[in-house]
Amino acid sequence: MATGRTHRPATRSRGIPEATVARLPLYLRALTALSERSVPTVSSEELAAAAGVNSAKLRKDFSYLGSYGTRGVGYDVEYLVYQISRELGLTQDWPVVIVGIGNLGAALANYGGFASRGFRIAALIDADPAMTGKMVAGLPLRHTDELESIIEDNGVSIGVIATPAGAAQQVCNRLVEAGVTSILNFAPTVLTVPDGVDVRKVDLSIELQILAFHEQRKAGEEADLAQPDTDAPAAPPAATARTVPAEKRRPEPGSDGDIPAVMPA
Amino acid sequence: MATGRTHRPATRSRGIPEATVARLPLYLRALTALSERSVPTVSSEELAAAAGVNSAKLRKDFSYLGSYGTRGVGYDVEYLVYQISRELGLTQDWPVVIVGIGNLGAALANYGGFASRGFRIAALIDADPAMTGKMVAGLPLRHTDELESIIEDNGVSIGVIATPAGAAQQVCNRLVEAGVTSILNFAPTVLTVPDGVDVRKVDLSIELQILAFHEQRKAGEEADLAQPDTDAPAAPPAATARTVPAEKRRPEPGSDGDIPAVMPA
DNA sequence: ATGCCTTTGTGAACGCGTGCACAAAGACGG
DNA sequence: CCGTCTTTGTGCACGCGTTCACAAAGGCAT
């Protein structure tokens, strides 16, 4: 899960729980697929299977939007597509700027999933003057100097940050100052924003680290079958064993193998 | 939040809550930054601020790992970096394959955040024969035919899927069949996997849709100040008003504007 | 050695999210 | 018009996660 809202303790906006909102796009995608196959109606069971969730959860989610189903029949696909789209605000056009057109930024610019859902790339912005004017995904790169004017001229309220970590907060500040109130952050940094601004982050390396944890656990469980509690290989911090704070237990290369790959980010 | 574990109801693996695991990489990053600045110790308050979380939450998170702090002083940075790295399994090398080297796959291959944390790209795999052998990020593209042998030869247990949605499930099946037990999915599809396999998904368009929801809500709240309940513009499904299921309430272009951008994905 | 001051570690309460299980609602056939 | 059968919508209970608040622990100065 590369997600995680910043600020606001999962306030249910207008009665719709945050967790439900996060699933609506999932339902929408499944419904859209059904719509293309001209399927007229779906049961909660079918749709839940397609979206990979529990059917009771799905029904409860929809109940927050209203009573859009028909008992004994199911949900009208087209109608539901429209309702969810409207609820998510996809019936209107959202101009978006992408700041930082490196490998990732360029990939985002070329990503079809954005344009196809009512999101329109208003501009691609990069700080490198040498790149200015270059075409990416059919759009000319604009220089960071123009950031404020681009945002104001196009009424942009959503910004995507794909810069290196070091530049992210500065870019963020400028975006917010210029009027952006929603930010999708791909830079591996914690962004600080004023109240009223939503930040969602997508962190590729964090996702892998979480997978690594579970992967290690799986491997560990197998090992435990033969030798339980091989868990404290070289650092059992028995309260009494570490009274020297400055020299505590250093990584101590050995036993567990090599030193962790500690590097920037 | 481009996140979302599939399967398993947030089981706390080995006593460490899933939510805590998801934050450990965040702490690790903050600690690494401190380590580079040669800061010897941090208080939970400082570190929490750097990681963007509540300090009580951070302390509780660390308490699951053990008692690694010193009261009145704080946490030893180096020591904690090591402990978290070990807990996350970053003290070992994880070979990873990336399948689907389009814009996004190439960006991932070039992303430094992977290699720097103990993740080594074992191979880049693409289905297009014309691409085979081409160099990306210093590695030669391999053809999908080699997928199984690559995984077995390198002992790969983590796979990254960056293919189009249509190919994702097939690729997933082959990965799992070949021995991969953790998958990071960038394709906009729900993957079905057997028990014991972890899937995390990163979905760029879903993140934007969630932001759009909140953005719309913000705009709506302002409007409500002048005219409350401008909420049911064209579809108040009063149970009695819609008895014809097949013809229910069509998007009905008008009133709300245009038809939602319903498209593939 | 003693006392003060800082900071950790955690017990307990609260709230959100999930899933079960069922009653109500409606379609459909006779 | 009535009975049956399907599927929704939801009341309820449970469990995870978050947060508060505080006692215990240790450093440090005197």
Automatic annotation (TrEMBL), chains A, B:
Repressor keyword on record: yes
Chain residues forming the annotated DNA-binding region: 26-65
GO cellular component, one term: cytoplasm
Biological process per Gene Ontology, one example term: negative regulation of DNA-templated transcription
InterPro entries: CoA-bd, NAD(P)-bd_dom_sf, Rex_actinobacterial-type, Rex_DNA-bd_C_dom, Tscrpt_rep_Rex, WH-like_DNA-bd_sf, WH_DNA-bd_sf
Keyword terms of this UniProt record: Cytoplasm, DNA-binding, NAD, Repressor, Transcription, Transcription regulation
Entry's Gene Ontology molecular function annotations: DNA binding; DNA-binding transcription factor activity
Domain CoA-binding: 89-190
Compositionally biased tracts (Low complexity): 225-244
Binding, NAD(+): 100-105
Region (Disordered): 219-265
Cell location: Cytoplasm
Family per similarity comment: Belongs to the transcriptional regulatory Rex family.
The protein's role, per its UniProt record: Modulates transcription in response to changes in cellular NADH/NAD(+) redox state.
Known partners and oligomeric status: Homodimer.
Protein name: Redox-sensing transcriptional repressor Rex
The organism of origin for this protein: Streptomyces coryli
Highest classification ranks of the organism: Bacteria, Bacillati, Actinomycetota, Actinomycetes, Kitasatosporales
Gene that this sequence comes from: rex
